[in-house]
């Protein structure tokens, strides 16, 4: 990324504080800008304001009460049809083929931070 380019903005959604911050730190260290949301409702509100600015979405599947990660990603794709989407989950991977958006990646918890960066880079390269 050249000095004149702005960092790509990625929305990270996870209701587990430590997981959200691990993902945010890894992405920031890799040159991305990050916006965080603690639950599905907060993510949906952020999407309504900033979907066009986003260059990626990393969302947990199970976000507690309210919209799930599946819901967040579907809304994100309605607003930004080519947005790269990465799901992270510890127990809902079997639902991905039925609930996930096309051309997304599922990363199982526990994961190495590099898995998120590589998945995002691969999805972004495919959208060019």
Task: Tell me what the structure shows.
The longest helix is centred in the last third of the chain and has 14 residues, at 113-126. The protein has a five-stranded parallel β-sheet with strand order 2-1-3-4-5, with helices on both faces. Helix 2 packs parallel to helix 3. It is built from five helices and five strands, in the order E-H-E-H-E-H-E-H-E-H. The mean pLDDT is 94. The protein is α/β, with parallel strands linked by helices and 128 residues long.
**Percent of residues in beta strands?**
15-25%
Helical stretch tally: 5
Which value, in Å, is the CA radius of gyration? 13 Å
Structural class: alpha/beta
Order of helices and strands: EHEHEHEHEH
Mean pLDDT, as a whole number?
94
Strand order of the largest sheet: 2-1-3-4-5
Describe the sheet with the most strands. Answer: 5 strands, parallel
Kindly state the percentage of residues in helix: 40-55%
Give unreliable regions as ranges.
none
The number of distinct β-strands equals 5
Query: What does the overall shape look like?
Result: globular
Measured distance between first and last alpha carbons: 15 Å
């Amino acid at each position: 990324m050249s000095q004149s380019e702005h960092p790509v903005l990625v929305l990270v959604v996870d209701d587990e504080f430590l997981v959200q911050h691990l993902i945010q730190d890894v992405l920031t260290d890799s040159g991305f800008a990050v916006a965080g949301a603690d639950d599905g409702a907060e993510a949906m509100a952020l999407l309504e304001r900033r979907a066009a600015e986003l260059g990626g979405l990393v969302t947990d599947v199970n976000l507690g009460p309210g919209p799930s990660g599946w819901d967040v990603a579907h809304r994100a794709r309605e607003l930004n049809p080519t947005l790269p989407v990465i799901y992270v989950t510890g127990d809902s991977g079997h639902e991905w083929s039925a609930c996930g958006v096309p051309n997304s990646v599922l990363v199982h918890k526990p994961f190495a931070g590099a898995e998120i960066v590589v998945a995002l880079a691969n999805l972004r390269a495919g959208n060019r």
